[in-house]
Amino acid sequence: MTPAEFRRTVRAGRFRASTAGLCGDFAQANLVVLPHAVSSDFLRFCALNPKACPLLAVGEPGQWALPALGAGIDVRSDLPGYYLYRNGELAQELPSLAEVWQDDLVAFAIGCSFSFEQMLLRAGIALRHVAQHKNVAMYRSQIPNKAAGPFGGQLVVSMRPFRAADAIRAIQISSRFPAVHGAPVHFGDPALIGIGDLQRPDYGDAVEVLPDETPVFWACGVTPQEAIRSARLPLAIAHKPGHMLITDIPNERLAVF
Amino acid sequence: MTPAEFRRTVRAGRFRASTAGLCGDFAQANLVVLPHAVSSDFLRFCALNPKACPLLAVGEPGQWALPALGAGIDVRSDLPGYYLYRNGELAQELPSLAEVWQDDLVAFAIGCSFSFEQMLLRAGIALRHVAQHKNVAMYRSQIPNKAAGPFGGQLVVSMRPFRAADAIRAIQISSRFPAVHGAPVHFGDPALIGIGDLQRPDYGDAVEVLPDETPVFWACGVTPQEAIRSARLPLAIAHKPGHMLITDIPNERLAVF
What we know:
The first copy, chain A, contains 6 helices and 11 strands.
C-alpha cells in the first residue's frame, strides 16, 4: 500500500491503530494543531528543542493541507487517531477533526522515530515492540524542555532495548537522521533522567528489557503534547501517540550523510 | 613539539613514558615486528580483525623505515618502549631494538585510539585517564579473534568511562575514524564480554567508573600482542602498551566523513 492509499483507508475510517511498521519506506509524522495566536511561540519552542521537535512542515493558517509532505493530505482525517486538549487536559479522543476544525488553526508536522526504526530493521536490528505488534514505550522524563511563551514541560522519550553492539549500531544509524530525532539522548539507568519504572510507560506499551540489554532513549515527538499540557491553552490538538501521519517522503531522503 | 622532534627526543633516550595526549593532532601507532616468514599470515590476521588491527603502514622486509607515516622514522628507536616476546612469552622490555634487529624483520603500524581521543577532547568530552596522567585501561576480553595461520587469541579492549550523553557523542565521533578502531565494540556490563574486574586491567592503569557512568570498550591495538602470545613464535616484537609511535599523519586526515 502506498502512503496515499493508506491515507485514503484511514480517511474512510477503516484503520484506527498504531502506524508502527506501516509503509516502512516513508516518513511518518507527529501532528500538532494550534491556534494561530500561539503559533509563533510554538515555532520558537521547536527551534529551541530540535531533538524532540524537528519540524518537517507547517501548514498555512486555517489550511488542513501539508503539500510539502504529500499531495492531497488532509490533517483533519488522515491520521488514525487524535487527542483534543482543553486547558491543558486531554478532553477527548477523536477519530477525525472534521467537527472541531477552526479557521484559525495551524498544523505542524514533526519528525517521528518510526523513520529510523525502518533503517534499524533493514540493518538487521530487531525491534521488540515491532516484533510484538505493540506501540513503542514512551516516558515523561525529568529533562526540562527549553520554554517559549506558554510552552514548556518535560522531554518525552521513546525507549527501545538493545544489546550493546546493536545499541552502538543504532546510535550510528539514527545519527544520520536528525529530522526524525537523530541520536539517542540517553541509555542505561532510567532513573538518571527521572524515569521510575520502565514497565509503566506514560504513553504506548511496555516491553521487556532482557538482562543482557540496555534501554536506549530517544527524544520523542510526543514532547509537544507535554508542552501543550503545560501551556493550558483553551484548545490544542495532537495525534494520538503512535497513530501518525504517513507522508510521501522517503525516509532515505531525510539522511544527512 | 612536532612529531619529528618528539621522535628525536625518544631516539636520544630522553623520553620513556606513555605517549597518551602527546602531539595530540597527530596519529599514534601500535607497532608489531615479525619475521618475514609469518608476515603473510599476520596481514591476513589484520584483514580478518579490522576493528582491532587497522593497518596504517607495513615496512619493507628488513627495513626499519615507515615512510608513509613520516620522513626518517626508525621503528628500532622512535618508540619509548618495546616488548620482546620469545615463544609467546614476554621475555624482555627494551628501550630500543638496535641490539635485536634482524634482516628478516617486517614492521607493521596499526592505528591507535589516542587519535580519536584527541577528537573527543576537542568536543569537550573529558577523558579520566588523560586528566589523571595515566595510561588507558586495557583488558583481555573473551571475544575470540578470527584466526589466521598461528595468530589467534582474544580481543583486547581499551575502556573509557562516560556518562550516557558523552558516550553517545563518543560513539558518533569515533565512528568517523575506522583507521583507529572506529566505534566501540561494547558498553555496559563488562562480564558480557568476559571481563571480571574493571579495577584489574591486563594492560595500562585502572580508572574509577562513577555511579552515573558506563564503561565503554573499544577494540585495541594491543590485540596483536595476544595474537603473538597465541602464535608462540621464537621471536616477536611489539611496542610497550601505551608507548606508541607518533607519526606525521594529522588525525583529521583519517576521518571518513
